[in-house]
Design a protein that fits this description.
alpha+beta, 5 strands, 5 helices
């Protein structure tokens, strides 16, 4: 669904606090249909504590976070990024719980928090405040890039180590195969040698026997025994 309304030049254009789908308080600096869109988002927004999410709609972004079963939501233009709106939501939560505490049982009187939302939105409209957060965001992005680069190097190094481990395993497997084949070859050569020795022994014995037969006058060797 498209967002319609007048163009507003502020980091945060709309904010609300809701319990389930019931809006407890809200404030906006300009008119438009984003209030209706925000209520539709409440119907599908996760109610898990510490949940943070951003929905993009045209040139705008709806950001929300959940704390103590309450949904804190704000709308900004996409150029504001995510750092400024979520910093806004953090301050918004702190102000709300400092003023009302745990409202799980009763939500009476929370509508007055709209004035606090107005004050916070005006605070974030100041260039110095936004610049400070954007500077922090830039530093965070730089750190993120460094971490991402280090992770990529680590992953590449890990792939190299994994490749080395694979090669080592293959070499180990090849060594084992070589040992098995060498043992089989030794056993085969031993059997062949044993057969050869047996054959030579039999031939020598037969040669000696036939020599005696010819020398002793017959197969009975009577000439040598008498």
């Amino acid at each position: 669904r498209r967002v319609h309304g007048e163009l507003c030049i502020m980091p945060v254009l709309y904010a609300l606090v809701a319990k389930d789908t019931t809006v407890l308080c809200e404030h906006t600096t300009c008119a438009g249909n984003f209030t209706a869109i925000a209520r539709k988002l409440l119907n599908k927004a996760s109610k898990n504590n510490n949940e943070k999410r951003t929905y993009i709609c045209d040139a705008y972004a709806f950001h929300y976070s959940v704390r103590n079963e309450l949904v804190f939501l704000c709308m900004s233009d996409q150029k504001s990024g995510r750092a400024v709106p979520f910093k806004f939501l953090e301050e918004m939560q702190e102000e709300f719980f400092n003023q009302f505490g745990d409202v799980s049982e009763s939500t009476g009187g929370t509508s007055s928090f709209g004035k606090v939302l107005k004050t916070l939105m005006e605070k974030y409209a100041k260039v110095t405040e936004v610049d400070k957060i954007m500077k922090l965001q830039k530093e965070l992005d730089e750190v993120t890039d460094i971490v991402r680069t280090n992770i990529e190097k680590t992953v590449t190094r890990g792939e190299q180590i994994s490749s080395l481990v694979d090669k080592t395993q293959k070499l180990k497997d090849s060594t084992h195969t070589f040992r098995v084949k060498s043992r089989a070859l030794r056993q085969s050569l031993w059997r062949q040698n044993a057969k050869l020795i047996c054959t030579l022994t039999i031939l020598i014995l037969l040669g000696v026997y036939f020599f005696l037969v010819s020398f002793c006058g017959g197969f009975t060797l009577s000439g040598c025994t008498s």
